[in-house]
Amino acid sequence: MTETSGTTKKPLKPPANILLRIHNLSTHYFSRRGVLKAVDRVSMDLKKEEFVGIVGESGCGKSTLAFSIMRLILPPGEIVDGEIIFNGKNLLKLSEEEMRRVRGKEIGMIFQDPMTSLDPLEKIGDQIVETIQMHENIGKKEALEKAMELLESVGLSGDRVNYYPHQLSGGQRQRIMIALAIALNPNLLIADEPTTALDVIVQEKIMEILKKMTREGRSVILITHDFSLAAEKSDKIVIMYAGWIVEMGESKKLVNEPLHPYTRGLINSVPDVWIDRDIRPMPGFPPDLISPPEGCRFHPRCPQAMEKCRIKEPPVVEVDSRMVKCWLYG
Amino acid sequence: MEIIRVENLKKYFPVQKSFLEVLFSKELQFIRAVDGVSFGIEEGETLSLVGESGCGKTTVGRLLVGLEEPTDGKIFFKGEDITGLKGEEKRRIHRHLQVIFQDPYASLNPKMKIGDHLVDPLQIHGIASNNEAKKIAIEMLERVGLVPAEQFYNRLPYQLSGGQRQRVAIARAMVLRPEFVVADEPVSMIDVSLRAAILNLLLSFKDEYRLSMLFITHDLSVARLVGDRIAVMYLGKIVEIGDVKEVIHHPKHPYTAALLSAVPSFDKKNLGIEIIGDVANPRNPPPGCRYNTRCPFARPDCREAVPELKGTSNHMVACHYELDISI
Question: Is this complex scored with an ipTM above 0.90?
Answer without folding.
Answer: no
